[in-house]
Amino acid sequence: xxGTALLRLHHVGYAxxxxxxxxxxxxxxxxxxxxxxIIHDQLQTAFVQFLxxxxxxxxxxxxxxxxxxxxxxxxxxxxxxxxxxCYTVGPLEETIAALGEGGMRLISEPKAAVAFNGxxxxxxxxxxxxxxxxxxxxxxxxxxxxxx
Length: 148
Hints:
Elements: E1 8-15, H1 19-30, E2 33-34, E3 39-41, E4 46-52, E5 59-65, H2 73-77, E6 81-89, H3 92-101, E7 105-112, E8 120-125, E9 132-136
Parallel strand pairs: 1-5, 6-9
Antiparallel strand pairs: 1-6, 2-4, 3-4, 4-5, 7-8, 8-9
C-alpha cells in the first residue's frame, strides 16, 4: 500500500455543541494553545478551531455545527466526543485507491477546504464507524498548517 506509506496524523476531530467553552477549558486545564480562530467552513457545514500543545505535532480540532441542517448536529447533540481522525497525505487519488484496497470507502469527494487554505480534503469510512479525513499535502515538507 504505497499510497498510505506517507500518512501522517494531523489532528483529532472532537465534536462539540459550541467551541468557545471547550477551547477555553482545554487551554486552562491542559495547556493547549489556540492555533487558529474559529473558522466557518460552509462546505462542511461547520465551525472549527484548532488547538495544539506546544511540543506536539498533531492538532486537536473542535468542530461544531453551523446550524440545524449541519451534518454535525446529531453528533454534537449526543454529547459530542471523538468525531474523526485526520491524516495528511501525498496525492489524494493514490491514497484513496490504496485505502480502498484495504476496505475503506470514499464518502465525500475531494474538495478545497477553507480551514486548510484551499488544500483538498476528502472523507472515508471503513468497517469501524470512525470517519477518516485526508488533507492533501502540497509537497513532502508541507505541514498543512490550519488557518485562512
